[in-house]
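Teaching assistant here, posting this on the class forum so everyone can see the example we discussed in section. The complex has two components, and the goal was to see what a joint structure prediction looks like when all of them are supplied at once.
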Amino acid sequence: MTTHAIDPAADSAESGALPELSNEEILRYSRHLIIPDVGLSGQRRLKAARVLLVGAGGLGSPLGLYLAAAGVGRLGIVDFDVVDATNLQRQVLHGTRDVGRPKLASARDRLADVNPFVEIETYETRLTSDNALAIVREYDLVVDGTDNFPTRYLVNDACVLLGKPNVYGSIFRFEGQASVFATAEGPCYRCLFREPPPPGLVPSCAEGGVLGVLPGLIGVIQATEAIKLLLGAGETLAGRLLLVDALRMRFRTVRVRRDPECPACGTRELRDLIDYEEFCGVRRTAAEELAAGAIPELTPSELAARVARGDELDLIDVREPHEWEIARIAGARLEPLGAFAGALRSLDSTRDIVVYCKGGTRSAAAVRQLQAAGFRRVWNLAGGITRWSKDVDPSVPKY
Amino acid sequence: MPITLNLPTVLARLADGRGELEATGSTLGDVVRDVSERYPTLAPRLRGEDGTPYPFVTFYLNDEDVRFHGGFEAAVSDGDEITIVPAIAGG
């Protein structure tokens, strides 16, 4: 069995110089101290440890709470978001009274209450190729609680370049994945997925939804792995990927090998951070945009004005039936994107067609399908039904 | 005993909601072709238009990454279990 222990005291003048625990701390951590695998020295290792948490959202909530409670000495948190009412179904770090506050302010208050002995360092910024190495360098390990592909590849590459373990977790609807990447011998995220899916193929939790308890389940697994790495105890998920299916309540681990051709940890040809938005296809170059043809857009206010003056147009909703149940725009017709190809022939290319979804991404894909089929008078509703609710008709619920 | 294919729920909805499919074939590529023919809407989520695997969908044959065992050319036999793991990014 291989453990992947890291030495939180390695940077100290003397490697054995772990911090002492006060009597208050000894009392607080007593249930740890009496486990032989943790004990006084393990708890002192936790106190010496510096952990960077990227994201204070769904995964970041249980991670922050449990790592603080466990007595990790220094917890850095990177986030730039504000608490929103739709976060509260799963982001248990934040409460109703925090809606509208920066997540970092809310996290700092809550974690200081959970454990005042933990030093909290906050970075109110998006993690970027420009700041990632400087921030990650200050920590012993990184816990990835981000919600998008560009940041996941960025976190991975920064960890590989600096030799810091990356405790990975990812969720969607009822399913989750967890692993430990970038240990000395282990594989990295790029060994698992060489390249990200094209934008729009894999919906985000904001588009596709996520069961509220799922980030709890996966975040607690990540916290467990982080603590084991710091203690040097047990067998971590390095070299294995844990798959969690909460709907069928099945757990499975599959083997992840270091890919000899991996540009990060295999060939090591990746010597610096890159442009991750470009890598993930999120940002097109001006030339590509021109080649692809811009998607014609109509703002909700423009659509409302056209409807008010009695323009003839067909309004098509490409969301799922369960979303249609929650909210819809009057006069629209439901044609879910998944079966849109079959719906094309029922549409009239001589009429003006406006397509919408929740936020404008799926409807943009539908507009492209229509354009490819020869439709010329097609518009995407900018910002989708969410912006329609905000700008035109607040009686339509946001979700 | 046929080959079992485990689908995550996000893909299962493209296979009549079935998270476990039974398939036949002598290579992983055969198995993918078999289920692609039976579930045409699932097909583009498993492999590219040219029939090759995607870099963001990993196939495991009895819990081993098939890329290290020949990819879609990997030999499969009755009783084998294939697990499909697509990249997800939520957090």
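For the discussion questions: The beta strands of chain B are 3-6, 20-23, 57-61, 64-65, 81-86. Chain B has a mean pLDDT of 94. Think about how each of these relates to the inputs above.
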